[in-house]
Amino acid sequence: MTESRLRRWVRLTARRLGLSRNPLCRTSDRMEGLLVVATLLAAVIAVPVAISVGRSAYADGRQTTASQVASGHWDTARLLERAPGSMAGQDSSNPPTTLARARWQGANGARTEGDVPVRAGSPAGSSVRVWVDSSGQVTRPPLTNSQLSDKGVATAITTLMGLELAVVVCSLLARWLLERRRLAAWGAEWARVAPRWSRKYH
Question: Which residue has the higher pLDDT, 168 or 18?
Answer without folding.
Answer: 168
